[in-house]
Amino acid sequence: MAEWHSTLTPHALARQLPPADGGRPAYRALADRVSRLVADGRLPAGTRLPAERELAAELRLSRTTVAAAYEALRADGFLRSRRGAGSWTALPDGTRPPADALHPLAPDRTGTELDLGLAAPTAPPQLAEAAAHALDRLPAYAAGHGTYPTGLPVLREAVARRYTERGLPTGPDQILITTGAMSALHLVHHALLTRGDRVAVEAPSYPNTLRALDRFGARLVPVPFTTGRTGQAGWDLPQWQRVLRGAAPKLVSAIPDFQNPTGALIDEDQRRDLLAHARAAGTAVLADETCAELGWNVDDSALPRPLAALDRDARVITVGSAGKLLWPGLRIGWLRAQPSLVRKLATDRALYDLGTPVLDQLICARLLTDHLPAVRTDRHTGLRATAEAFAEALPRHFPRWRFTLPPGGLALWVATPGLPATALARAGERLGVRIASGARFGIDGAFEEYLRLPLTLPAAHVPDALHRIAEAAELARNERFTTADPEPCSL
C-alpha cells in the first residue's frame, strides 16, 4: 500500500517555525527549528516538507543551506526521504511520540507523573450534596425522552440569573446549554464562518480554540497583548483597530475575563473601544467567559460588566462553562445570544449531539443556585494560595524568569528567556513532569520562551513542582549545549 503524507506549503512551514537561536550556523538553526516542531507535536510525523528550492525561496536562504538542514534532520532521525516521493517528518527510532500536555493525564499515570500541563480544578466539596439533590429530582425527568436541545429550563434559568447578577440582564431564552464550552464554540464557528474567513485572535490565547479555528479552515490574524505601567497585560487597541480595519475579519475571538493563559482582565473602556472598532468593521465578537468567575486577586466591586452588557447591536455572542469554576467532569457549557440564534444553534447541534446529559445539568443547576458563593470563595482561596507560593519561590529557582501576578484566572504566564519551553517540556517528559510550553498558546511559532504554570496545583505541591522543573531545565540546557556545533560554518 502506498504511503500518504500531508504536504506542507513553504509559507505554512515558515509561519510555524520558532525564532532562531543566535550564533548557530544557518543550516543547523533551521534543522533545530523544524525538529523542535516535530518533537513538540506541532508538526505531525509524516508531514511532507516543501522541496528544497521552494523553501529556500520562502525563507530567503540559499538552496545549499536548506539542503544541509534537511540532511541534518535526516541524520538526527527527524526526516525521511525517498527518491521521487520527497521528504517527510519522522521521530527518531525509539522516541516516544510527543504528549499533549494540555490533555488530561491518563488515570494510570497520575501516580508516576506530575501534571503541570492541565489547568483544571478538582470537584468542590459541595458536589456530593448537589449530586444527591439531582438524583432525587431525576425521576421527574426519567418519564420523558430526556432530550433537551436548548437545555433543561432549570439550568437555563440559573445561568441567565447569574448573567443578570453580573450586570447583563438575560432571559432563559437567550441561553443554550451545551456539552462543554468547546461544543458551544464549535456551534458558533460553524454558524458564522466559512472556510477561508479571517478571525482575529488574541496572542497568546487558548490553544484548543486556536486549533479548532485552524481545523475549520479559518485564517487566524493574531493581535498581541500590550503591557501597561502596572505590568498587567491588556488589549492593544490601536493594533485591534488596524487589524479590524485592514484585515476585515469575519469574527473576533477574545477572552476578556481572566484570559487564558495570561490572566488579563480587560477594563470597560477597552471593551467599549473594541466593540466600537468591531461595529465599524461589521465584525461579530465571540467572548469566551469560561474564566469569568475566577477573580481571586481583584475585588468583586471592581469587576467590569460582561462584554455583551456594553453591546448595542447584538454583535456579541458569549460562551461560558461550569468546568473552570465547578468541575470539568460535569461537561457543562453554555452560550448567550439572541433568542433567534439560540434556536438556530439548537437545531444545528442535532448534527453533533441531541442534548446535554440531564443528570449533569441538574447537578450544575444546584451548584449555581445554592452553592455558588461558597464554591467561588473556596476556589479563589486555593488559586490565590498557589499563586503566592509560586511568586515567592520562582525568583529563587529561576532569577531570570519573568512573570506578573494576574488579577485572576487558572495560571501564571511565565517568560523563560534563553530557554525554549518546548525543550523544557521535552526534558520534562523524560523526568516525569508534564509542562505546557508557551508555543502551544500562539501561532506562527510565537511564545517559544514562555510556559504556563497551573494554579490548580495545591500550594503545598509548589516546591516539588519547581524542583522538577529545575531538573528539566538543567537537562534541556545540557542537551542544547551538547548538540551544538563546535564551530560555525558558512554554506
Q: What this model shows, in words?
A:
This protein has an eight-stranded mixed sheet, sandwiched between helices. Strands 3-13-14-12 form a four-stranded mixed sheet. The model is unreliable at 1-5 and 481-491 (pLDDT under 50). It is globular and about 70 Å long. It has helices at 10-16, 26-40, 52-59, 63-76, 127-142, 153-165, 181-192, 207-216, 237-246, 268-281, 339-348, 358-370, 372-397, 421-431, 462-482, and strands spanning 79-82, 86-89, 114-116, 175-178, 198-203, 219-227, 233-235, 251-254, 284-288, 316-321, 333-336, 411-415, 433-437, 450-454. By secondary structure, the chain is α/β, with parallel strands linked by helices. The protein has 15 helices and 14 strands. Helix 7 (181-192) runs parallel beside helix 8 (207-216) and helix 13 crosses helix 15 (462-482).
Helix amount: 40-55%
Task: Find the structural class using helix and strand composition.
Answer: alpha/beta
Query: Would you identify the regions where 5 or more consecutive residues have pLDDT less than 50?
Result: 1-5, 481-491
Say how many strands there are: 14
The biggest beta sheet, please?
8 strands, mixed
Number of contiguous helices: 15
| Nearest-integer average pLDDT | 89
Work out the strand percent. Answer: 5-15%
H-E order: HHHHEEEHHEHEHEEHEHEEEHHHEHEEH
